[in-house]
Design goal:
Layout (H helix, E strand, L loop, with lengths): L1 E2 L2 E2 L18 H22 L10 E6 L3 H18 L3 E5 H7 L15 E6 L4 E8 L2 E7 L5 H11 L6 H9 L21 H17 L3 H32 L3 E5 L6 H10 L5 E3 L3 H4 L3 H13 L18
Parallel strand pairs: 3-4, 5-8, 8-9
Antiparallel strand pairs: 1-2, 5-6, 6-7
Bound molecules: 5'-O-[(R)-(carboxyoxy)(hydroxy)phosphoryl]adenosine and zinc ion (ZN).
5'-O-[(R)-(carboxyoxy)(hydroxy)phosphoryl]adenosine (KG4) binds next to helix 4 and helix 5.
Length: 318
């Protein structure tokens, strides 16, 4: 629940079920959404000390994402809208990650527009020129895997259970980047991450032939090496995008923005005449407040949703 970009409650229900399968299983994700969505909304109202008739509008995600989960959210939001007679606001998942920066927080300055945002999640990696809250322009994007996907896939190769990104980050903090992992080369501001995964795969195969315990004996250093390769790649294009756009206000968003090395590298840029905005952890990974933040700006602009809108798994614009 968000009022004037102030977060009154932010209920996030992490689905444990996927850990048993080593990845997200779409049908299980949809079922878990159905099981939990009513309780999540009741808890959000109760945490915010609001009753249903006190809300002004219902923001929900139209996409992009897993279609089954989106349909559960969309049907529930439409039901709420009909019951409360309050308008719908159709938020875009990726746009909302960028607008998470606009949520008020005591201890940090909010970014002024325009700013350049690196949006790196499990499904997407984009460089976004944020001209204003509702005018976001993608200036670079991944041509294959997303950065979060690269973290998760490399973690899997190293025997780290799903979701591997956060665990790989923790282990990397105990090691040094001593192992040679290839950095992909792509023209312009676009990214590629599939080469990192392949490089890790071949390196592990080669080393494990000589020493069966290679991975377990070198795990923290291997994690540090993978993390450095992914973060170097992210930062390289960030520097190029800064030079191209001339923007000196920078931000990171999406689940990968929780990565400790990426946060460190971004913070280092702050000492080079740049304003750097890094959201609190709870606003980096998927959360309800960021959807309400996008809803807030749609509301101000009078862009209301329709009961006829169908959610979409893929949306290429922001
Ligand atoms: O934005 P998000 O919560 O969900 C999507 O929209 O995809 O991002 C999830 C991704 C996962 O791939 C996860 O491994 C990665 O973000 N992630 C991290 C860290 N925390 C989450 N990757 C590296 N280091 C982290 N600390
Ligand atoms: Zn996300």
């Amino acid at each position: 629940m968000v009022a004037d970009l102030e977060v009154l409650s932010n209920v996030v229900w992490t689905q444990q079920v996927h850990e048993d399968y080593g990845g997200v299983v779409p049908e299980l994700a949809s079922r878990a959404h159905t099981e939990r969505i009513s309780q999540a909304v009741i808890k959000a109202l109760s945490d915010a000390r609001l009753s249903l008739n006190e809300i002004d509008a219902v923001a929900y995600t139209v996409g992009p994402g897993l279609i089954g989960a989106l349909m559960v959210g969309s049907a529930f939001a439409k039901g709420l809208s009909l019951v409360t007679k309050k308008p719908l606001l159709e938020a875009n998942h990726l746009h909302a990650h960028v607008l998470a920066h606009c949520l008020k927080s005591n201890d940090r300055q909010l970014p002024e527009f325009p700013f350049l945002c690196l949006l790196a999640s499990g499904g997407h990696t984009q460089l976004v020129a944020a001209h204003s809250p509702l005018h976001l322009e993608i200036v670079g994007r991944t041509v294959d895997d997303a950065a979060g996907e690269a973290f998760d896939k490399c973690a899997k190769l190293l025997g780290i259970p799903y979701p591997g990104g956060p665990a790989l980050d923790k282990l990397a903090q105990l090691g040094k980047p001593l192992h040679p992992i290839a950095r992909p080369v792509v023209e312009g501001l676009d990214y590629s991450f599939s080469g990192i995964k392949t490089s890790v795969l071949y390196y592990l195969r080669q080393q494990s032939r000589a020493n069966h315990h290679f991975i377990t004996e070198n795990l923290p250093d291997l994690c540090a090496s993978v993390q450095e390769a992914i973060v170097d790649t992210l930062m390289d294009k960030m520097h190029k995008a800064m030079a191209k756009t001339g923007f000196s206000r920078l931000a990171v968003a999406g689940g990968v923005a929780a990565n400790s090395l990426l946060r460190k590298r971004m913070a280092e840029l702050a000492s080079q005449h740049c304003q750097v905005h890094i959201p609190p952890f709870s606003y980096c990974t998927d959360n309800a407040a960021m959807i309400a933040a996008h809803g807030h700006f749609l509301w101000l602009d009078g862009r209301f949703g329709s009961l006829n809108t169908a959610p979409m798994a893929r949306i290429h614009s922001l």
